[in-house]
Structure formats: C-alpha cells, structure tokens
Amino acid sequence: MLTPASNPAVDLAAALRVRLAGFTGFLRANGYAVGGADAVDVLETVARTGILDRQILRWNLKALLCGRGEEWRRFDGLFDAWFLPPNKKLFVASNVAPAGVQNSAGGAPHDATEAEPVAAAGHGAAGDSDADPVRHGASRTEALASRDFRDLTRAEHARDVEALMRRFARRLKHVRLRREARCEHGRRLDLQGTIRRSVAYGGTPLRLAWKDRRRVRPRLVLLLDVSRSMSLYSFFYLRLARALCGELADVHCFIFHTRITGVGEALRDPDPWRAQERLHVLAVGWGGGTRIGECLRDFNRGPGARLVHSRTGVIIVSDGYDTGEPEVLAEALARLRRRARRIVWLNPLLSQPGFSPESRGMRAAAPHIDLLAPGADLAGVARVLPQIIEALG
Amino acid sequence: MESMREILALQSRLKDAGYVAEPALAAALLLMLDLGRPLLLEGDAGVGKTEVAKALAAVRGARLIRLQCYEGLDVHAAMYEWNYQRQLLAIKLLEHDERPATVKEQDIFSERYLLKRPLLEAISCEAQPVLLIDEIDRADEAFEAYLLELLSDFQMSIPELGTVHAVTRPLVVITSNGTRELSDALRRRCLYQYIEYPDPAKELAIVEIKLPHAAGQLARQVVQFVQSVRRMDLQKRPGVAETLDWTAALLRMGISVIDDDGAERILETLSALIKTRDDRAGFTREVVARIAAAC
C-alpha cells in the first residue's frame, strides 16, 4: 500500500477532493442557484474527468455550475479564491464571519467588474443585508418614513398601496393581444381546430374549437428617481414598486440619482424590513445631484437593451431636476421611446398649484413622453394607472 | 478519462468544421457528450451561438434538427400534429371498407398520418441527431415547461398513438438572447456557456477560415476596425456574422486594404456592418477615416 508521502499525486488528489466537496456550498453562499443535486453532479463529473488538471476542472465546473451570464463572469474569481493557495486566507476569514461571506469572498471579482456598477452594487448590498451597518441605518429609515406620510400611519398606507396594486395587477393581467390563439371558450370559431377535432368523430364536427385574443402580461419597467429633491416621494414609490413586484412577475425596478442600479432582488426580499434596508444601502452614498440623462443612457446600454421590448411600459418617476445636459436626456429618452411601447413620466411636483414643468430636464424630455402625469399621492397614481393599462393593450 | 489532449482534439475538429472554439467550450461539449445533458448557450446576438450546434453536428456527422422558437409556439408546431385533412379523406374512403372498425381506426391514427415536428423528429431519429432549440427566450414559459419534461424523460405522449420513447438521446443545444429570464429549473438541467464577442486573435482566425481570400493584411485590418467599432457606443454592436458580411462586401468591391484614402468606399460598404440608422448617422467620413487610420 502506498503511504501518502510516497505518492504526492494521490495526496494532492485526495486533498483536492476534500476542497471540492465544499465548493458548491461556497458558490451558494455567493448567490449561485446551486443545490444538493449539483454537488452530486460535480463528484460524478470529476470521477470521469479527473481532478488534477486545474484548467479542465475549471472549465467543467464552470459549465456545470453556472446558470446565467452574471454567474459566468464571477466564476473565475470564485474558483481561484477557493482552489488557489495564495487566496486561502480570504475564504477562511469569510467562513469565520458568516455575515460577511458574500462580501469578503466575492470582493475580488466585484472589484474587477467595477465598470459594471449595477451588478456590483446589487451584490454588495445583498451581503450587507444582515450585517452591522444595517443597525444604525434603522433610525434613518424611521425618520424618512415619518417625513413621508405625515397624515397616514405606516400600516394604513401600506394597505392602501397594496390594494391599489392588486387592482392594477388584476387589470394588467387581462390585457389582450390582437393575435388569436386556440382556447376552450372564445369569441370566434376556429375552423382549422374544429376540423382537426372532427377526425375523432368520423368527420362530424361534434366538438367545436374556438379562438380568442391571446392574453399577455405586458412588462413594466420602473425607473425611480431617489435623489434628494425626490426624497419625500421616493419612499412611497419604492413601497409601490415592492407591492407591484409582489403581484406581477414581469416587473423590473431600477433606482437612480447619479447612477442607476437594479433593485428587483432587494424588492423581492420576503422580509419587508430587510428589503427596506437593502434598498437603503443601495440608495445612499452616491453624492448629490441627479443625472437623469446619463442614468437613462446607462440603462439603455446595459439592462435596457435586454429588458425593453415592444410590449414594455416604462414608468419614470422623477421631478425632472437634472444637473446633467438636457441633450443627453433627450437623446436617451428618444432611444428608449423607440424600443418601448409607452413611456409614462410621473412628476410629483405637477400637482402643486402654480407649478409648470419648465425645468430644463422636463422641457428636453417632453417630446419623447407619451404621458406626463402628476403623482404626488396615492389618488394621483390611481388616476394614472388606467391610462397606463390602456396604453399597454 | 477526459484529458487536455481530447479537448484540443475536439477543438481542432471544430475548427475543421469551420468553427473557432475556446477550449472551455470544447471542454463543455465533451462534458455534454459525457453526461448527456443539454447545453445552454447565452450571449449577445451574432456571437455564433447557433453555429456551435451546426459545428457539433458536422463534427459528429449527425443530423441537425432545428426548432426556431417564437412567441406563441405551441405543441402543434413544436412536437407533432395530425394530418387531419388526409385523415378525413381516409375516413370517407374507408366507409365502404369491409374491415373491422378497430382496424380502420388504427389505420387512421397510425404514423402515416402523423406530421412530425422538430421535437418528435429528434427523439425518433435512428442515429443520434443534434437538436438545436434556437432563441428559447422568445417562446412562452408554458413551452419551456413542456421542454423540461421532454428533456428529462426523452419521451412524448401522443394520446391517440401512445408514448414515443427516444430511440437515441439527441444532443440538445439551446440558445438564448436573454430577452426573458429563463426558469431556474431549465438552467439547472443544462450545462452552461456564456459566449462573449471574440477577441482579436479569435476573430482573425474566424475570418481567415471563413473567407480565405481575405487572409493577410485585409483580414487583420478588418478585425481591428470591427473591434474598435464594438467599443463605440452603438445601439447594435456588430457580431461575427457582420464582420464576415462586411469582409465579403469589401472583397466584392475590390478593396484589399483599409486606409485613410479609401474611407469613401468603406462608407459605401458600411451598411453590412452597421445595422441601424442612428448608428449609421454616427459614421461620418471623418470617423471612418480616423478608425481606418488606426488600423
């Protein structure tokens, strides 16, 4: 029998196998959608392909364990962090402090993708969700809340928002396409389907087939301005967005002031308090000013290219105070307009008496918006929603 | 046991079939053959996702069966449909036939009247085919669920005929442009590759393989030109297909070198590379000359 010392290759393979066993767990801790079955697959694959060639191991595990582009891009960093000796300290440290797993272990790849602030910011915050900074964030949230709904208690307001969103979602589910599809009870006879069914009865059309306009759920993209000038309203709109995300599957929410970032993941957090904290972490610390134009341009180049299609309604909530160049805003909106079905702009200031949308940003935006509406309170939003539904049908 | 030698061998066979693959992709293809799992390919439009399936079919000497997904794709278009016009005709013809009714019925619902759509075709092939499910993100979620079931059991039940079991398990390649989020169940069942825009060396190799006439200076310049165009802020970045189209267009125009003076003629061919009006507006003579000068 071989002693471990006499055969370093066997020794290394055994050590690697031990390391390998923890790798799926490590990926899971870093937000990968991997499960127990994947761990079995990993062992099976390694049994076939061997473990000693690091490059082959990397390629195989990458193909096996990644499921989306974002995971694909982060994989190499995580693989190195787990399997390469020099980085060993990094993951040992992160294992000791459970709250920091995502942050410290995922730190290296995030730094590498600094050019993609959307992805990086989203994940940084995910890690922070139950860490320490949250605790002193709580008092700030309280202050924000009390400023926002002076006349309503939190619970009442939440109920109203949710009821409104449920109504909206229900009506949105009934938006129909012009294109027809077969169904059991429809408006028009489907001749082709009827003939097909008649075969079973020897050519007599005993059972009729029908067709009707197909139901579709249009996609909604919310772009919320969370700059300082909007602070009175942004909390309310985030609550609205959260309720909407709960009701409908195809809703995508982004917040912006000097940068734009996706908050879908944070909004869908089942724990409302933690969701708020995650949003808070995402929203703070970007410095003053609102760069609507640049944010929309970044959105067009990044997530917008993938998300916005001909059945997408884009809802922008902003007061239109843009510190950037209005030309940039106009161009970005024009681009967005060409791809999207409708662009609705809710401006909370519109309902104030004597206000007219004369800011440079609003003027630049006006030609590219389908609907400009006030949205300072729940009633205002409720008035606009039917028009949005109509526009999307 | 899979080894680097095998991976490199597959890579070079793919190259012979006209596809320049990263070793990582070759490794994933080997793993796919090994585990019998589908391969999900994602990436921007025009990076050559569909070509992977074609090259794989060529390397394996297998038939390529393609299912192009679209919104509203249903069972009848993807799996099977009865040729009911012929069935009705047969019913009329069999009216005065003396055979027992059960025989007649079996005859009407036999494979003769079954129209095989790509998925049924793929699982009833004698020799293992390559099944390409293109742009799955365009199909509805309901179809994705159907597909999942098919991919786990490789059998299909046709109420009038019974269950069809796969003769051989097809090699399944699924592509997605990411216009819709795919279900986790599908992602977990598949091996995954994200295909990026090729780097200059890889793109050069592709151009040289596909268009041997352009080899040399023109190919190098074309690739450099396209790579710098990709770095610009465009609505639609040119993919590999566009690079090849444009190179062919240049060859057709008799242009063998990209330089400052030829900017005028390059402009004429640029519609092969730049596909939207907005993007096209950004390519003035000066811009083209500047990029060309850097090549």
Chain-wise SSE layout:
The complex is a heterodimer of chains A (393) and B (295).
Chain A: H1 8-21, H2 23-29, H3 36-49, H4 54-65, H5 69-83, H6 88-96, H7 101-112, H8 117-128, H9 133-148, H10 154-173, E1 176-183, E2 188-189, H11 191-198, E3 210-215, E4 219-225, H12 231-247, E5 251-256, E6 260-262, H13 264-267, H14 272-283, H15 292-301, H16 303-307, E7 312-317, H17 326-339, E8 342-347, H18 360-365, E9 371-374, H19 378-392
Parallel strand pairs in A: 4-5, 4-7, 7-8, 8-9
Antiparallel strand pairs in A: 1-3, 2-3, 5-6
Helix pairs in contact in A: 3-4, 5-7, 6-7, 7-8, 8-14, 9-12, 9-14, 10-12, 10-19, 15-17
Chain B: H1 4-16, H2 23-35, E1 39-42, H3 49-60, E2 64-68, H4 75-78, E3 80-82, H5 84-94, H6 101-108, E4 114-116, H7 118-123, E5 130-134, H8 141-153, E6 155-158, E7 162-165, E8 171-176, H9 184-189, E9 191-194, H10 200-210, H11 217-230, H12 240-252, H13 263-269, H14 277-282, H15 285-294
Parallel strand pairs in B: 1-8, 1-9, 2-5, 5-8
Antiparallel strand pairs in B: 3-4, 6-7
Helix pairs in contact in B: 1-2, 1-3, 10-11, 10-12, 13-15
